[in-house]
Amino acid sequence: MSARAEQMARAAWGAIGGDDPAVAALRFVGDGGLPSTLAVSDLAAAAIGVAALSIGELAQTARGTMPPVTVDRRLASFWFSKSIRPTGWRMPGVWDAFAGDYRTSDGWIRLHTNAPHHRAAAERVVGRAAEKAETARAVARWRAGDLESAIVHEGGCAAEMRSRDAWTHHPQGAAVGAEPLVRLAATERAAERGWSPQADRPLAGLRVLDLTRVLAGPVASRFLAGFGASVLRVDPPDWNEPAIVPEVTLGKRCARLDLRDHGGRAIFEKLLAQADLLLCGYRSDALDGLGYDDAARRALAPGLIDVRLDAYGWSGPWARRRGFDSLVQMSSGIAEAGMRWKAANEPVPLPVQALDHATGYLIAAAAIRGVTLRLTRGQGTQARLSLARTAKWLTDEGEGLSSPPLAPESEGDVSPAIEMTAWGEARRLIPPVAIDGIAMRWDSPAAELGSSKPAWD
Questions:
Q1: Which residues, in sequence order, are bridge partners of residue 101?
Q2: Chain CA centroid to CA 264, Å
Q3: Which residue has the higher pLDDT, 115 or 345?
Q4: pTM, rounded to two decimals
Q5: How many CB atoms lie within 10 A of CB 52?
Q6: Pairing relation of β-strands 108-111 and 158-160?
Q7: Helix axes 354-377, 216-226, angle to 10 degrees
Q8: Which residues lie across from 330 on neighbouring strands?
Q9: What phi and psi, each to the nearest 5 degrees, are found at residue 287?
């Protein structure tokens, strides 16, 4: 099992410009795998391993040697689901009542209706229904491609189920196929900050401005917070994602700003000017439309480490399309491959939202590599990643090797420490990675969105 994970880690490490010999510091332990036709547990181990390897490389600048890095494949697989274990309370449900897969006249389509405005967009096309069965009857009258286009045109989110071959020959699939797993480029010289990494807490003192939401970006900033970064998540006044906030706000401060308001813009610009890293998961043209394109961001923060996430890639006809993990699985052939593997009569997605989680750890890895490059070369960095390109990384590996199931979670997999979240007591899975001399830990519990002021510590 570790050979596949190592192969995938080596490819991802090379994608962010890492030196190949450094991969020798990375070791995988643990057996078993998540049930899937694809190598999901190896993907989990590799993505987390590359993020951890980037921490080790940064620590090497302070310690002089590369610390050994160990990733537990089993724990990595668990972290790709949920890390939090509530005590005496429950996490809200993940999906809106009308979200899901629907049979069309010629195939299948997935509607993503978790956000109220996305549900409203779908309803403008298929009609408002009192129950899901009524929506199913309306959808069944459509061709999948026509309905996908109509909902997207209304500002909604939907994805026709395609085979991998169909996706490869689709204009957007071809565009994604031509993109690197991570596009990393140096920018202008950074202002001298006098910062250097602590040997045991490598990201302490770095400021991360987090403009991300469900789910990859928040996974990335949670990882950064685990090694000492000061993460300030900023959301619009009306945004919420209750089903995942307790899972992903660990170690962060969460504020709200209206970037269409003069006062909110002034605060944002001050925050950005003082930030070391910017993570942005908004649709690719969203910041541009607000007046914060690449040039404007770099003018406000010369030498910024600027990492952006797209759903369907940053080139091609769908570069600005809204998307989520479950939709990209439908578009890219993953759900269709799962259906064939299971001999099922409906789409079969991955057992976890693996594209989100894997891309999140790749975002963290690219961001940390940017920190190392700024420290050693004095330059800023721009990086771009996408869920669709991560999907290609996974599917290019082919079918997963047959493996026994993962051993069930045990008491020893959960930290004894009590996390006093905003919702009540909870415990967390122990970290899936161990770096010699560097503890992965968080300085504050999960917090509600908007619970902090929009200011750095």
A1: 110
A2: 26
A3: 345
A4: 0.97
A5: 30
A6: antiparallel
A7: 50
A8: none
A9: -65, -40
DSSP codes, 210-245: EE--TTHHHHHHHHHHHTT-EEEEEE-TT---TTTH
Write out the two tokens for 147: 């309905």
Nearest-5° angle of CA 172, CA 177, CA 178? 100
| Predicted local confidence at residue 243, as pLDDT | 87
Residue written as token pair 């909110």: 264
Please name the amino acid found at residue 383.
A
Task: Let me know how long the chain is.
Answer: 457
Locate 432 and state its tokens: 């899936």
How many helices (H) and strands (E) are present in the chain, helices listed first?
17, 16
* Contact predicate 394/43, CB 8 Å: yes
Q: How far apart are CA 111 and CA 88, in angstroms?
A: 33
Query: What is the predicted pLDDT for the residue at 2?
Result: 78
CB proximity list for 272: less than 8 A, separation 6 or greater = 209, 278, 292, 297, 300, 301, 304
Residues 6+ apart with CB under 8 A from 19: none
Which phi and psi (to 5°) does residue 225 adopt?
Answer: -65, -30
CA atoms lying within 13 Å on the CB side of residue 4: 25
Task: Give the integer Cα–Cα distance in Å for 239 and 210.
Answer: 14
Alpha helices in 228-333 (DSSP H): 245-248, 262-273, 286-289, 294-300, 325-331
pLDDT over 90 at 305, yes or no:
yes
What six digits make up the tokens of 418?
């009590």
Determine how β-strand 433-435 pairs with β-strand 69-72.
Answer: antiparallel
In 3D space, the residue among 117, 119, 31, 118 whose CA is nearest the CA of residue 76 turns out to be 31
CA distances from 56 to 45, 202, 203, 224 (A): 16, 9, 11, 13
Query: What's the confidence (pLDDT) of residue 402?
Result: 65
Question: Which tokens go with 199?
Answer: 């040997």
Helix (H, G, I), strand (E, B) or coil at 94: coil
The model's confidence at residue 284, banded by pLDDT at 50, 70 and 90, is confident
86-97 pLDDT, tens digit per residue, is 999 998 877 888
The DSSP element (H or E) to which 254 belongs, if any, is strand 252-256
Reduced to 3 states, what is the DSSP secondary structure of residue 425? strand
Residue 416 Cα distances to 85, 219, 428, 429, angstroms: 11, 22, 8, 9
pLDDT category of residue 142 using cuts at 50, 70 and 90: very high
Helix (H, G, I), strand (E, B) or coil at 109: strand
Q: Are 12 and 50 in contact (CB under 8 A)?
A: yes
Amino acid identity at 318 = W
CB 378, CB 185: distance < 8 Å: no
